[in-house]
Amino acid sequence: MEMRAETLEAIRRSIARAKKSEFYGKRFAGVEPGDIRTESDFIRLPFTEKDDLRDAYPLGLRAVPEADIVRIHSSSGTTGAPVIIPYTQKDVDDWALMFRRCYETAGVTREDRVHITPGYGLWTAGIGFQLGAELLGAMAIPMGPGNTDKQIKMMMDLHSTVLTATSSYALLLAEEIQRRGLRDKIALRKALIGSERWGEKMRRRIAGELGVELYDIYGLTEIYGPGIGISCERECGMHMWTDYVHCEIVNPQTGERVGEGESGELVITTLQKEGAPLVRYRTHDLTRELPGECPCGRGYPRIDTLIGRSDDMIKVRGAIIYPSRVDEMLAGVDGVSSEYQIMIDHLNGKDILTLFFETAAGGEAERGRLEKTVEGSFKEKIGLTPRAKAVGMGELPRSEKKSTRIFDNRY
Ligand code: ZN
């Protein structure tokens, strides 16, 4: 995304603020904001990695006096120490402003009732959805995750019109509503789905079974939380609020900028954050910048639907496997659902990949035929032959958190 003079100026201010933290004070000891005169000066600055944030635990990222911090959030991660992000009142307010912009982009109004299923607490998701909805003037229904019976009851009794959820939880709710035959009793018209990488087939199922328009909302705890970008009615990528965040796309292996429109890893620099400014933070989300203007006319630049995470890429017998490619492959096979699970094992000196997929087909023969079809399609699209195993619909786990679908048991 091209850098304008005012962006460069905002970056210089952000670096000056960041340097007041213990972490950037050391990292940028030899860097003066005034040294950053051009884009090429900027891209010579080192990346900030999640491990840097972990090492700064608990409050090494704090860039303002203690008294100015009004809240913290924390991203857990599956391993290692948590990351703590301190927020000033302005950070909290800015986040709500961005979130309101997301709702407006999705066509949500003050008349809407927003059913919020992401978690509350140290994790940023729930409270962000809530503050944005309240700022807009809509009615927030702060459910939090879990208790599907209660979710569906409240959804019916309160006539929730907007669902906010992770894609896997939206799918679980959609399936449950379908199974209980309650589709006519719910009033949902839109769903804002947290931006995990998710396949087209899953999208179509959630949209179809709930009868809603879907919007992808982007964000991460380290940078405010969800709400720093969202897709629009044209469904072509997500608009990013570049007055708050500067985005770059880099090659995840080399760290070099990719060419225009090429896929790579999203790297974000905060432009207005006070509590914990971040400079060139590696998100590990893989996407690309979409060139040109969106037909919707909104001037904010767009990134494409996420294709995966750079740390999700898995190499098996020389083939690189992205979860998104598996989604695409399954989307092209009739008679199987969007859900899958992959197990990779090392047996007798060889890596073995087993792919479990769901099908409504009951008979042995038909399942066997589908397994052969999936194996062939996997070989053709991804480059190696798996062992495919059919299981019944709903047998693979759905989770309320981001789903883990690949289990690498080789190490
Ligand atoms: Zn648009």
CATH class of the largest domain: Alpha Beta
The coarse overall form would be globular
Continuous helix count: 11
Report the CATH architecture of the largest domain: 3-Layer(aba) Sandwich
CATH superfamily of the largest domain: ANL, N-terminal domain
Classify the fold: give the CATH topology of the largest domain.
Rossmann fold
Structural class: alpha/beta
Distance between the termini: 39 Å
**Count of distinct structural domains:** 2
Strand content: 25-35%
Helix fraction, binned, reads: 25-40%
Instruction: List unreliable stretches of 5+ residues.
Output: none
Bound molecules: zinc ion
> Count the strands?
20
Features:
411 residues, alpha/beta, GMP Synthetase, Chain A, domain 3, twelve-stranded mixed sheet, four-stranded mixed sheet, 29% helix, binds zinc ion
